[in-house]
Amino acid sequence: MKSYGFVIFLSIILSIHFAVNYYIYHRGIQWLETIPALKNTFRWIMLLLLIAYPAGRFLERIWYSPISNSLHWIGAFWFAGMLYFTLFIFAVDIIRLLNTLIHFLPKQGTINYTNLKYYTGIILTATCILIIFIGFMNAWHPKINQYNIKIEKHIEGRKQLKIVAASDIHLGTIIGPRKTNKLVQTINSLEPDIILFAGDVVDEDVGPVIRQNLGESLRQLKAPLGVYACTGNHEYIGGADRSVQYLEEHGLTILRDSSILIEDQFYLIGREDKDKSRSGAIRKSITDLVNHLNKSKPLIMLDHQPFNLDLVEKEAVDLQISGHTHHGQLWPFGYITKRMFEVSRGYKLKGNSHFIVSTGFGTWGPPVRTGNRPEILEINVSFR
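Now predict its structure.
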């Protein structure tokens, strides 16, 4: 049944992918009536863009090579291209529809109409390419977001705790050695007491992570209290056990529906991602995770997807760090994630529970961010 459901899901995704590409192709061919010599070239380009991402993802599982990498990168960039070309072409189609009612554009067949059509296509294409380029540059320049919070609990021997956290790193073909090294160097430069990763450390298949030896960079992370993570939905897409094993072999401690008492001072809790159901099992409830803990000590929890914050507050968790949303990553999807999640990004206090949701360090799909900046969190916690 699960395989049948996956086939249906994949069929829907591929159908949407084909339909969007056909819409862009059809309008592109209409525009190239003004430059007919480019029609055949455009057809071949669109065919490459249509198959690049699925072909690249398939190939890298059986033959990781410059060819699979190139197809993956081309297809990933084209996801952003699909979005913005579709938005702009749709806007042009609305204007054309209005013109049938109001007649404010030059008449078809005239030189003025041909010139308008030609320059509209040029401007539309250039604008989309510029947006994607700026979004790509933005994705390569994470910012440090600092939060100063107070937990009204006393810890013997500690007044302050510096947490440096990140989520949604998505190590793999797109987030390779250069960006992984940048992550490690930036985190270490902040001199954290403890390093926390709130899920999606790996981008689905751990194969490209292994082949690029990205774990050796993770070994360089330095924090006296250790480096910890929880699972995210992408670990479960690619097979969580294999990803977890690799990360633990390279210096991370993965908390999977478990907790640890750090230096007899505070608890760190790591929830399995809610997509654990992919494996046929259900994750533990928050109550099951905390009911045996000494709640006079601070409770800090990693939970990748920031759902059901009321339950977290009810169980007196002092700080939850999450990710997953990317705050949409590409404009205008941030408006959707704001409706889906009580906190799509940033900070919220509910009762005595602090919630911080990161936009993430890496990217999923296109290596492009147009809706926000990637980030690393510096969380300075003070105790009573």
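The chain is about 45% helix and 15% strand.
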